[in-house]
């Protein structure tokens, strides 16, 4: 016997007669957009005075909205390319220097080992 009265037992809901009474699901996408007003257009945003739009999965500057100089953009791209090439050259130089260091260290260890063997050999003769 329950402590506070009857146990909770909700009534079952009757089954639905039809999933949808609207025929809009039968229309194609363009007709639905016109009927329901779902035409949003291309997403756009404004950053630092430059208007960008989202097309084919990428943000693209709108034509005519670029307030900077095209020559400045080309200069920056060229400078970026130069810096990338310089970075690649410096990485190559670091790799070469590390190889040289490891080679020199290995030679040094071999010479120390030979010197130690010569010392031990000369001690045995005495």
Q: In DSSP terms, counting alpha (H) and pi (I) runs of 4 or more, how many helices?
A: 2
Binned strand content: 5-15%
Domain count: the total is: 2
Radius of gyration from the alpha-carbon trace, in angstroms: 39 Å
Count all strands and give the number.
3
Q: Within the largest sheet, what's the order of strands?
A: 1-2-3
N- to C-terminal separation?
A: 106 Å
Largest sheet: 3 strands, antiparallel
Q: What fraction, in percent, of the residue positions are helical?
A: 40-55%
- Average of the residue pLDDT scores: 82
Describe this structure in words.
This protein is mainly alpha-helical. The chain folds into two domains: 23-63, no CATH class; 65-125. The protein contains two helices and three strands. It has a three-stranded antiparallel beta sheet with strand order 1-2-3, with no helix packed on it. Strand 1 and strand 2 form a beta hairpin. Keywords: Coiled coil.
At a glance:
The protein is mainly alpha-helical and 126 residues long. The longest helix is centred in the last third of the chain and has 56 residues, at 70-125. Helices cover 51% and strands 11% of the residues.
């Amino acid at each position: 016997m329950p402590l506070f009265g009857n146990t909770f037992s909700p009534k079952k809901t009757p089954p639905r007669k039809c999933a949808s009474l609207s025929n809009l699901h039968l229309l194609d996408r363009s007709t639905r957009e016109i009927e329901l007003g779902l035409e949003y257009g291309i997403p756009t945003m404004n950053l630092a005075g430059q208007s960008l739009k989202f097309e084919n999965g990428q943000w693209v500057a709108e034509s005519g909205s670029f307030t900077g100089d095209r020559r400045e953009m080309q200069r920056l791209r060229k400078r970026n390319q130069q810096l990338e090439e310089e970075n690649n050259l410096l990485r190559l130089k670091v790799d070469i220097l590390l190889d040289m260091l490891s080679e020199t260290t290995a030679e040094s260890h071999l010479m120390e080992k030979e010197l130690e063997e010569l010392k031990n050999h000369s001690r045995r003769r005495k």
